[in-house]
From TrEMBL:
Subunit structure: Monomer. Binds directly to the core enzyme of the DNA-dependent RNA polymerase and to nascent RNA.
Stated name of the protein: Transcription termination/antitermination protein NusA
Domain of life: Bacteria
Single GO MF descriptor: RNA binding
Ranges where the K Homology domain occurs: 235-298, 306-374
Length: 419
């Protein structure tokens, strides 16, 4: 095949590279790798071959340089050529001269050319993935906007500028519902490149997603006037965000919430009506614990010497607020403050009994359930009735057990003490 025909093949390869946004220099480097691979497969070595890149003309020249040796002394066809064969090609050659013969892509055969195309396409795909890996790794923690194009049992595939993003079930807000074609906002959570397989993981449950939403919706956060110290979430249910103002003239909480809650409401809607508590950060651990337990009103906090465990007293009617539905509020408050928190009911009764005293009667599992619904004392349980206890524990305490609990507790008090 002529050099012109070889050039057409190079141009075909160049067209593939342009489609994939591969630069000319990179293309030439890849082509040299591909052709040297072809040479090694045919001749066993590429040491006697020279490849000349012509980026301006968009082609490549290849030369096979061999030493002219006596016919009977030929030992390596890759680096030597017989005198009789060499003089047929160039009568002016003499023994031990070097003969450079130009070779063309098609000299390797049609199958080799097809293999070269496949190798080139594979190498370009690898480079494309490496570029995407680098690009999206640098964007971890950044919000992106994409279109849902496939919904599967375990994940959702999202198209972002012709790049596939994956949102696993664990990174989806439970209340989220999507259809093909829906536009979705999410944050880049992780990027992996394993054995040539690129995986870009995005999330709507990450604390970073909520933090980026604050930056997008609240100018003072974006400008650095307000700093977000920490974000904790129970996605789709409740979040707590600790903020601090770097300007004494700016109220951090007020700026985040906005006039009539307009700023925070746009974020709440994006998160499927997730409740968001915005809290003023303070280095005073006790005060921070009180703020973290909002919307409950805290009477006192007893913090241990290590600062990692707190006993909190709240009014009787605030226990359920402090603990929250399913224990969410106390769980988030503990995560926000980095402190294990136990909530205790403040009572006017001096003869009340801590519910943990009934562990032998009820079992620790039942005691834990009672704590969870705010019944931390005997009188707190007696304010309910068996049917209500069954309802509030979602059946984890059945009707028979509830009646037995009430009987055991009542037996601990005299009749006049129950009035």
């Amino acid at each position: 095949m002529s050099n012109e025909e070889s050039k057409l093949i190079i141009q075909y390869f160049a067209e593939i590279a342009r489609e994939k946004n591969i630069g000319k220099d990179m293309l030439m480097t890849i082509l040299e790798e591909v052709f040297r691979s072809m040479i090694r497969r045919k001749y066993g070595s590429d040491e006697a071959f020279e490849i000349i890149l012509n980026p301006d003309r968009g082609d490549i020249q290849m030369f096979h340089t061999r030493e002219v040796v006596p016919d009977e002394e030929l030992t390596n066809e890759a680096t030597e050529i017989k005198f009789s064969e060499a003089t047929k090609l160039d009568p002016d050659l003499e023994l031990f001269d070097e003969y450079a013969q130009e070779i063309f892509i098609t000299d390797f055969g049609r199958r080799s050319v097809l293999t070269a195309r496949q190798t080139l396409a594979q190498r370009i795909r690898e480079i494309e993935k490496e570029k995407l890996y680098q690009e999206y790794t640098e964007r971890i923690g950044e919000i992106v906007l994409g279109d849902v194009y496939q919904i599967r049992a375990r994940d959702i595939l999202i198209n972002h500028n012709s790049t596939e993003l994956v949102m696993p079930k664990s990174q989806q807000i439970p209340k989220d519902r999507y259809r093909k074609g829906d536009t979705i906002r999410c944050v880049i959570e992780d990027v992996k490149l394993d054995n040539g397989n690129l995986s870009i993981i995005v999330s709507r449950t990450s604390p970073a997603f909520l933090e980026r939403l604050f930056e997008n919706e609240i100018p003072e956060v974006y400008d650095g006037i307000i700093d977000i110290k920490k974000v904790v979430r129970e996605p789709g249910d409740r979040s707590k965000v600790a903020v601090v103002s770097n300007d004494e003239r700016v109220d951090a909480v007020g700026a985040c919430v906005g006039m009539k809650g307009i700023r925070i409401h746009s974020i709440v809607r994006e998160l499927c009506n997730e409740n968001i508590d915005v809290i003023n950060f303070t280095t005073d651990k006790i005060e921070f614990i009180k703020r973290a337990l909002q919307p409950a009103r805290v009477l006192s906090v007893d913090l241990n010497a290590a600062g990692n465990h707190a006993k909190v007293n709240v009014p009787a009617d605030q226990v359920s607020k402090a603990i929250g539905k399913g224990g969410v509020n106390i769980k988030l408050a503990s995560a926000l403050t980095g402190c294990e928190i136990d909530v205790y009911r403040e009572t006017d009764y001096e003869d009340d009994i801590e519910i943990s005293e009934f562990e032998e009667d009820f079992g620790m599992d039942v005691v834990d359930v009672l704590y969870e619904i705010g019944c931390d004392s005997a009188r707190a349980v007696l304010r309910l009735n068996p049917a209500e206890l069954v309802r509030r524990t979602n059946g984890r305490i059945d009707e028979y057990s509830a009646k037995n609990i009430f009987k055991i507790i009542r037996d601990e008090f005299d009749e006049d003490e129950l009035i």
